[in-house]
Write a structure and sequence with these properties.
With about 450 residues, this protein is mainly β. The protein contains 5 helices and 23 strands. An 8-stranded antiparallel beta barrel has the order 1-4-5-6-7-9-10-13. The longest helix has 27 residues.
């Protein structure tokens, strides 16, 4: 319970940090409607608020120490780190003072298996993070940063014991919150980045059987280096053409009845475990250190209302994940059909936060397979939740934009043998492409 409370508290601190950054900035930058940012000078401020980027990096862990079982008891052995190639998707915000990103591992190198073990797997999953710069990122300047992220890490090992009855072993899979420090160097088109990461909680218990546990300690240190390419699709608006676009866009759409319009959106979303399942802790304690999650497509559609500056829409997400070890396989499936409405809370030179309630029809399924014997459970229910995030919106007459959203449905669960199996995962869709239907034709 203490670990769960620490996890929840840390996650809340991350969300609070991101929210506080926006709120504090809003005190120093008065909410500004897009129609008032119409001079070239104002448009330079507006279009430089955020810049998207994509790139690659190499992320390196530094190993640790684990225990394995021998005829005379437990022995310890060191294992080495690995290097992962990752795809980076992100964006700098607040005129270079903040960087929000997601890093997706695509390949791993450098795996070394100790002679005392048959196999070792040590990897880190999708990372979502925020970096903050005391001095704004600027072309030709080296800029330091501090930051924090959330990611999954996974460790498993297979013993050399000749009579071991299982080849599928459980993982210690946790959501972690490493701190960061490093520096970036920017050119006109490229952003170079190097960072050092420190994770506070590094001691775990690895299940060597259904009832026995060995000590596992991973190194708290990791580091990464990478480069990214800027994508500033709105830079051309800081011009005389942009002045005309900003002044005439809303009027043109109003004349063609396209201020209120339909929208569709799609983007990758990561899910992170928030609550531990009572069912797992009681029946399969050797699996309770696993932290299921997934990377899924997030599909949304709805209607934007210009005067209210609000969206009403629906979204669909299908989540599937599982955990296994020592003859047990647990499989989770969730289909969420969600009605959501949210209000935009002011326009801070293109940064447009929003928040609102969600009402979902949830189709939940859970399968417990123990040594080939399966039991299935399902529940269909209506659940209340919340959605919040922000748009990067240069004008009120956009034909497309980029959106970030987080969804959370508290206490979402089904019952198995009278005990809770939790589905209340935090969903973080970092970059969603949103198309405003019909507006491009109206511009023509």
């Amino acid at each position: 319970m203490e670990a769960l409370l620490n996890l929840t508290a840390t996650f809340k601190r991350i969300i609070f940090t991101i929210a506080a950054c926006a709120v504090l900035h809003s005190f120093s930058v008065q909410a500004q409607t897009a129609e008032k940012d119409t001079t070239v000078e104002r448009l330079k401020i507006r279009t430089s608020f955020a810049k998207a980027y994509f790139g690659i990096d190499a992320f390196t862990t530094t190993g640790g120490t684990t225990q394995y079982q021998t005829s005379s008891g437990f022995s310890s052995v060191d294992f080495g780190g690995t290097t992962s190639a990752r795809i980076l998707l992100g964006g700098t915000h607040f005129w270079g003072h903040a960087d929000f990103y997601v890093a997706i591992p695509v390949a791993q190198f450098g795996k070394k298996i100790p002679a005392e073990l048959a196999n070792v797997s040590y990897s880190e999953g999708v990372e979502t993070g925020a970096r903050f710069f005391p001095w704004a990122i600027k072309e030709g300047k080296l800029r330091p940063f501090v930051g924090i992220s959330l990611k999954g890490f996974s460790f498993s090992q297979l013993s050399n014991e000749p009579n071991k009855p299982y080849t599928t072993v459980p993982s210690v899979a946790k959501t972690t919150f490493p701190f960061q420090a490093g520096a970036v160097y920017a050119t006109k088109k490229v952003l170079f980045q190097a960072g050092l990461n420190y994770q506070r909680h590094t001691d775990f218990q690895y299940p060597l059987s259904r009832t026995q546990y060995g000590a596992l300690e991973v190194s708290p240190w990791s580091f990464n280096v990478g480069l990214s390419y800027w994508i500033n699709t709105n830079g051309g608006l800081a011009s005389k053409y942009g002045e005309k676009y900003m002044k005439m866009g809303v009027k043109k759409l109003q004349a063609r009845n396209r201020l209120n319009c339909w929208y569709v959106g799609i983007g990758p979303s990561s899910s992170f475990e928030i609550s531990k399942s009572e069912y797992i802790k009681d029946k399969y304690p050797f699996l309770k250190q696993e932290s299921p999650g997934s990377l899924i497509p997030d599909i949304a559609a709805g209607r934007y209302f210009h005067k209210a500056d609000a969206n009403v829409g629906v979204s669909y997400r299908k989540l599937g994940y599982g955990m296994s070890g020592y003859g047990v396989h647990l499989n989770y499936e969730r289909r969420s059909y969600t009605f959501e409405t949210y209000k935009f809370l002011g326009d801070y030179h293109g940064f447009v936060p929003y928040v609102g309630p969600t009402l979902a029809y949830e189709d939940l399924r859970f399968t417990d397979t123990d040594n080939g014997v399966s039991k299935s459970y399902e529940a269909k229910k209506v659940a209340l939740g919340v959605i919040f995030g922000w748009d990067i919106r240069i004008s009120r007459s956009e034909t497309w934009l980029l959106r970030t959203n987080l969804r959370y449905t508290p206490n979402l669960h089904l019952k198995a043998e009278g005990k809770k199996v939790m589905f209340d995962q935090m969903e973080f869709n970092f970059i969603q492409f949103v198309w405003m239907v019909g507006r491009r034709q109206a511009w023509k």
